[in-house]
Design brief:
Mean pLDDT: 95
Number of strands: 12
Low-confidence stretches: none
CATH superfamily of the largest domain: Isopropylmalate Dehydrogenase
Radius of gyration: 20 Å
CATH architecture of the largest domain: 3-Layer(aba) Sandwich
Bound molecules: 1,4-dihydronicotinamide adenine dinucleotide, magnesium ion
CATH class of the largest domain: Alpha Beta
Number of helices: 11
Amino acid sequence: MTNHRIALIPGDGIGTEVIPAACHVLDTVTARHGIRLTYESFDWSCERYAHLGSMMPEDGLRRLRGHDAVLLGAVGHPGVPDHVSLWGLLIPIRRGFQQYVNLRPVRVFEGVPSPLRDARPGDVDLVVVRENVEGEYGEIGGRLGRGFPEEMAVQEAVFTRRGVTRILDHAFALAGRRGGRLTSATKSNGIVHTMPFWDELVAERAAGHPEVTWDQEHIDALAAKFVLDPGRFDVVVASNLFGDILSDLAAAVAGSIGIAPSANLNPERDHPSMFEPVHGSAPDIAGRGIANPLGAIWSAALMLDHLGHAEAAARITDAIAAVLATAPVRTPDLGGTATTREFTEALVELL
Ligand code: NAI
Ligand code: MG
């Protein structure tokens, strides 16, 4: 029996509804694969912020450190500014634990119509690999002369050889294990310092991965191709900002934000990695028990994969594909009337 310690951060809104669903699925699968998961749940959230003035305790990272992985629902509440929840919880965890790879798999499943006419099930199966700790989302910069006509704001993008090299190596290795194709998102025609540096490093790292065919596209053209021909992509590697935008675009192409998963990985395993659905706390439907749990469930599968249980993870993604293709039961975002619990039960049946 392999034992893993999992930290659960359900968060706010539907985060607290989809995490129990993910745990139910995990428990069903792990029981049959000789895996034991021990959960510890943390109430870190905007609700906590409202009561105690912080999203998590001072020593939050220390408390998470002893765990093998973190499974997070979503944070965000209408009364709390979004930058508080982001910079008070998600970013400290991603950066403090050097989770420099943000992985977002995207698939068009049978039974989930894509808004794109030509995006057929099976055609679209790609992964966006986003740099997660540096790049455009730096903390260097400032504001001067607030309120005066000459007021100015400066925000520096930071690209380091170490930071870019490690995300590229991760993406090339992933492409080697998947379809063998990689696309790099760039904008070296307009951003004349950081992006040519990125491009040079892509060419340098590619030399170490002869098994991977690669190309690069400017981000504007790439966004258009995600819409016009999403089936041509396998692994897409991008800087923090470009990857952020591309991954939401790709999730929309797949048909529902409720299904999209993500992983924040520390590949060296010096620190725990964190797994979370792409969606937010959805205050508009929170508390009604109708959230689509698949984004959280797929994220849990990514977690099992990262913990070394590829087979158990594949059982879950197969069940997701099967429940979407065959079961009439589905949540309202997918056109059904089922509750989170009923949809989860239908999936568990298939397992
Ligand atoms: P959202 O993803 O929460 O909701 C967008 C729309 O999609 C809503 O209409 C919602 O009902 C629907 N939706 C999302 N997930 C769904 C699911 N699993 N099942 C069914 N429908 C679903 O994004 P929004 O509205 O922009 O943000 C709401 C709050 O969530 C904000 O406070 C925001 O900051 C936070 N947020 C947190 C994230 C995180 O914790 N990583 C990510 C994105 C937003
Ligand atoms: Mg985003």
